[in-house]
Design a protein that fits this description.
mainly alpha, 11 helices
Length: 273
């Protein structure tokens, strides 16, 4: 006998009707239960800081950052929150996240202009830009600061100058001054690097312009010697004998043993701190 569908009493149909709602509630509950648990929920601020420092020491900068962010929120208004902000900037710096490090330091200096750690913030900001190399493998190209984008070098110089001017007795001031000297020498070398490029390709007018810029903007720097040499040779190539001879007299007076000539592309002039 074929099956014949019959109308069920309402009381028997109801359970089937509510199944979709029950299923939807179950899905929502499951979704809520998948939210990651905050393992730091019951931790003290001291424990969070201790864990964050351990991650920093172990080089796990990506793990240290979220811990420091939690610490900053829970210790708001305390010196520990300031420490968390600085440590987070350092973690970004060591993790190769330059933009985040600079943003964190700028925020710190804006929020705490009278902080006793302001000298360190300026120093760290200078370091971030000072070490702004050509990507992770910049050292493989054997390029030094004089051959990179100069904006980072100038930004670094400004941070170090502000540090050494405002906090001359800071523990970081002496190192900052040494780095400033290196940056100035490198900026001068950059101009000479470009001048050399033009000279070697026969663009003597352009070579003269860049060499003159190096001499006018940067005095008493190692690159001055090569800049003068490029001027003499470029003037000679253009038949500008009077300017050639005048420049040669400057070389003879400044460098009794003669200018060294063009710098060979060898090991970069790089000081390790």
């Amino acid at each position: 006998m074929p099956f014949t569908a019959r109308k069920l009493p309402a009381m028997l149909r109801a359970p089937f009707a509510i199944y979709p709602a029950v299923l939807a509630a179950c899905v929502l509950a499951a979704g809520c239960s998948s939210t990651p648990e905050d393992k730091t929920a019951g931790w003290t601020t001291d424990r969070i800081y201790s864990e964050a420092r351990e991650e920093l020491s172990g080089g796990s900068y990506d793990k240290a950052v979220p811990l420091l962010e939690k610490l900053e929120g829970r210790a708001a208004g305390t010196p520990l929150a300031q420490q968390a902000q600085l440590d987070k900037a350092y973690a970004h710096y060591k993790g190769g996240e330059k933009a985040q490090a600079i943003a964190a330091l700028d925020r710190f200096m804006k929020l705490h202009p009278a902080s006793p750690a302001l000298d360190y913030a300026l120093y760290l900001k200078g370091l971030v830009n000072f070490n702004d190399e050509l990507g992770m493998f910049g050292w493989l190209s054997r390029q030094d600061l004089s051959e990179r984008d100069q904006k980072a070098a100038k930004d670094s110089f400004e941070s170090f100058r502000e540090l050494s001017t405002r906090f001359p007795e800071s523990r970081y001031a002496n190192d900052a001054r040494q780095r400033m000297t290196y940056i100035v020498n490198s900026l001068a070398q950059y101009e000479v690097h470009v001048a050399r490029y033009y000279f070697q390709r026969g663009a003597y007018v352009a070579a003269i312009s860049r060499a003159q810029t190096a001499l006018a903007d940067y005095q008493n720097v190692p690159a001055q010697e090569e800049a003068l040499y490029i001027l003499v040779k470029s003037y000679d190539a253009l038949g500008m004998t009077q300017l050639r001879d005048d420049t040669q007299r400057i070389i003879d007076a400044t460098y009794p043993h003669g200018a060294a000539g063009l710098k060979n592309k060898g090991d970069p002039w790089w000081k390790v701190w």
